[in-house]
Amino acid sequence: MEPQSPTMLVVCGKSAAENELARCLKNNNTLKLPDDSPVTVALQSEIENQENVNVGSDDVFRINLYMDLLSTSLFGKLLIFSPKLASTHDVVSSSKAEMEDGRIVPLVQYVVSLAMTEAINDGNVRSKDGDKVAFAFFSGMPSLDVRIKWPNDLYLDGLKVGGILCTSTYKSKKFNVSAGIGLNVNNQKPTICLNAVLQRLGVCCCQVQREEIIAAFFNKFECFYDIFITQGFQALEELYYKTWLHSGQRVILQEKNEDQDQISEHVVTIKGLTTSGYLLAATEDGQTCELHPDGNRLCDLYLDWVEAPQAAIT
Length: 314
What we know:
314 residues, alpha+beta, six-stranded antiparallel sheet
């Protein structure tokens, strides 16, 4: 059996502090994969082209562009880049954001989803000197309209264009949370991608770049996360509801009786989110209920009635 090729990780920071952290990560062999497969770690200063990292063929990731467009004080300032990686969670699993209040942990994925949709739909990102750089469309051209499909999918023109995965562990009385985002920027198969839609809209000579999208996301996320921590998710709910797909949506729920041989149907209307982050719905007779996800589709839910047995959508 031929030896396995090592996974390449390029580590760099925006400031001297993050670059020193990058050196420590390399020197201490901190970055590892769960299966102990071989890893090669390089600092930005050690690669042949310090501004660009080859992704494959003529595709590159422009590190300096990303750093120039990043305007955060906390998030996104340490970059770990790999041209090919089975899962980003494999690398960041040991470097998670810590939260003490477990009640708000389920809401983090909504903050992440909102930040990404706003980063794309806003159509601009601020450079380090404060100027806005338009990346998605020219003045007067239609912008993209990415929407949130609860609980963790991003949709564009009725098709899935991305998804959010948040995981958490509990240790030493703290919840360690990590968030992963998958987004189709250039690869339109099997569903759709941002740049293909822009081409259909007539914006052919100004395409979305990954560096711009990632920087714009972190700029948005840091602002939203600060609001989330200091004021609660309620302060973001109005904007979230403008972005998601489900306000006023009617859902047919099927409930089996105790002997499992008969099924009754209930029509509910989506009203919003509960304080715990699940769907808040109302029945035709005015009762409220809470819908929980079971899988990744909105129709895969079970219904936790306030004054009735549990029911399931089939």
